Amino acid sequence: MSQLNRWAILARKSKPKRSPLDDYETPDEVTFALGQFLELKICLVLEPCAGSGRMLHAIQTMWPKVQTASSDIKRGRDFLKRTRIHEGSLVTNPPYRNGMAQKMVDHALNITDGKVAMLLQSDFIWGQQRGKNFYLNGYRPEMIIVIPWRINFFIGSSNKIIDGQFFSHAWVIWPKRSLRASNTTTFLEWATQIPKLGKVK
C-alpha cells in the first residue's frame, strides 16, 4: 500500500461521525460576524433550525429591536414542509448533508419576503451548476461574508465542541424578495472574530 493511500485511510478514520440531523449549533462569534455587516431593521426574524436556541439568543443580542421566531425539526416543525409565507427575514445555519443546504436555501427564498442569511460551507459558492442557477439565471446573493477561522461547532445543546473541523464557512445573504430578481452585485466581506457575547452592543 502506498503512503498516499495510507494517509487517505487515516484521514477518513479521523473524521468524526456526523450527527444524523446535523445537530451542530453555532458559536456566538459566528452570528456576530453576520451582524458586523448585515443591518436588520425592525422586522420579524425567523430561525428555522434553532436547536436549543443558541443562535436565536445571539440574534436577539445583535439586533435587540427585531422580533424573533424559531422552529426546529426536533420539535416536530420541518421547515421544508412550511407553506405559509414568512413576511420577515430569515437567519439560520442549515443542515448540510444529503443536499439539505440547497433545499433549505431554495425553500427559504421561495417563502421568505425579507432577507435570507444562511451560514454555508464555502464550497457551496463554487459549484458550477449552483453558480449558473444562483449567480447567472437565479437569485444572486447581495453579500458573502467570509469566516476566516475554522468554526468549532457545539454538539447539539451541549457545551462540547466537535473534535475537528475540515470545512471553511461563509454567510451567504440574499436581498428581500422585491429586490432579488434585479440584484446584480454581490459584495464580499471579511469577518473579524468577536469572542464574547458581552462585547456586542
SSE arrangement:
Elements: H1 3-14, E1 24-25, H2 28-35, E2 44-47, H3 54-62, E3 67-70, E4 89-92, H4 100-111, E5 116-121, H5 128-136, E6 143-147, E7 154-155, E8 169-174, H6 177-180, E9 187-190
Parallel strand pairs: 2-3, 2-4, 4-5, 6-9
Antiparallel strand pairs: 1-7, 5-8, 6-8
Helix pairs in contact: 2-3
Salient structural properties:
201 residues; alpha/beta; Rossmann fold; seven-stranded mixed beta sheet; two-stranded antiparallel sheet; 6 helices; globular; disordered C terminus
Describe the protein in words.
The chain has 201 residues and is an alpha/beta fold. It has a single domain (19-193), classed as Vaccinia Virus protein VP39 (Rossmann fold, 3-Layer(aba) Sandwich). Helices cover 27% and strands 18% of the residues. The chain has helices at 3-14, 28-35, 54-62, 100-111, 128-136, 177-180, and strands at 24-25, 44-47, 67-70, 89-92, 116-121, 143-147, 154-155, 169-174, 187-190. A 7-stranded mixed sheet has the order 3-2-4-5-8-6-9, sandwiched between helices. A two-stranded antiparallel ribbon has the order 1-7. Strand 4, helix 4 and strand 5 form a beta-alpha-beta unit. The longest helix has 12 residues, at 3-14. The termini are far apart. Mean pLDDT is 83; it is low at 6-15 and 197-201.
